[in-house]
Input
Amino acid sequence: MSTILKGIAASNGIAIAKAYRLIEPDLSVEKKTIESTGDELARFKQAVEVSKTELQAIRDRAEKELGADKAAIFDAHLLVVSDPELLGPIEDKISSESINAEFALKETADMFVTMFEQMDNEYMKERASDIRDVTKRVLSHLLGVQIPNPSMVQEEVIIIAEDLTPSDTAQLNRQFVKGFTTDIGGRTSHSAIMARSMEIPAVVGTKEATASINNGDLVIVDGINGEVHINPTPEVVENYKKEFHAYNEQKAEWAKLVNEKSVSRDGHHVELAANIGTPKDLEGVINNGGEGVGLYRTEFLYMGRDQLPTEDEQFEAYKAVLEGMNGNPVVVRTLDIGGDKELPYLELPKEMNPFLGYRAIRLCLEEQDIFRTQLRALLRASQYGNLKIMFPMIATLGEFRQAKAILEEEKQKLVSEGMKVADKIELGIMVEIPSTAVMADTFAKEVDFFSIGTNDLIQYTMAADRMNERISYLYQPYNPAILRLVKMVIDAAHKEGKWAGMCGEMAGDEIAIPLLLGLGLDEFSMSATSILRARSLISKLSKAEMEELALSVLDLDTNDAVKEAVEKAVNK
Output
């Protein structure tokens, strides 16, 4: 039967494919007495062999696509699944106690995990994690349930999940994953941002995707209207195929603007830049006509691994992006970990309110070894392009001054070591805390630029967690309170002869763009896939008319009233 779920349109486009549930299966076991220990041992050995074959395939794929260091994790798993020290006691238990393989495996593995976890040795603690992962895999084969692995998908699918972590999304195979839908999340959750950078349609915050969609169901993800159709009728599929082609034709029209400047109807130039997470994203920036990188999220260098990246690894990544942009500006945000982005190997304290906690610049100023390593790598890379550095989550002038002083210290050390460093590197801050926006006139005297991070600025101003779909109505980018803060920041920058950009999702929003143009925003940084649409829109707008519009909406009283006023003015 055909069903429609409503959610939040997180990434434009339409996808039609079979469902692939990315959901952890139930692996609970109970003790059972068995009649034939020989049959049970054979069943256990078969599960082990299938697990080995799977792990070898995953390992080979990881080496090919992610490099030898990522593949090493699966080498460790292959050693565990072949280890007689682990397998022997399980087989003995099955034979001597006449119990089912699942229970023997679970009991033996739990004993080893507890033993390793209690050791002081870090290496041994990691082995506990390997045993846990391998046990889960063998157990899934004994129980006849599937452990999802999106990196191994070999046909076109739509991912169904409660939520997707940044590392989940990074594993998705772009060739086969055509879209995704989640139970939770909003337009600014990391899964949504990643979907836009991967150019795949997504609908998030449906509340019931995992409860309503089975593996293999035919699913349509409508990332334009925020709808998910489950087992649609042939007529609905046919209509969506037409919409899919119409959307692709529209994209082809926008593509003609790839080498054009971003200029309003009355000749005002703005810069349209892209937000990226890895050097691989550069291809999308260039293909979509990006005039720079307005936000390089460096935390993806630190994720999906079991230790901090080295200075040289970081240097190579930054150098690749700077060279790839051929002298166009690249704004690199220093490490922004915390909130919804965790690094297991850092063992950060669990907090009641992680978004308001020990994260971003607060963590970097405390964990200075991590911060200094990153700054050295950035400084070394600075000679290869047009680098600008910005610090995230700055709440006080003292934090900016301290971060700047650490950067200066590392710069002097490198120079004294005979290293080449660019003469002029602009230093800016993310404006994402309301107090910083209110004090923008003071900050503007000391920083070289502002980049407004609206994803956090909106959630902090509205006191509404942007990951919570129950209060997603409070994610209000056009609320006059937000627009007034944005105006304060832009005006403060211009008064001091500095530039102001925006790297939050609002910068690529079709309703917000006319207002931001009118408020005088200099640089709009967005998902690369939004650039050509934004360029097309700006070319049809008059800066002078948008100034009048922006000033008039500041006195309106609601988000909806502002939206209505913009639609009326732009579509007249």
Q: What stands out?
A: The longest strand covers residues 14-21. The first helix runs from residue 37 to 66. The radius of gyration is 26 Å. The CA atoms of residues 34 and 98 lie 6 Å apart.
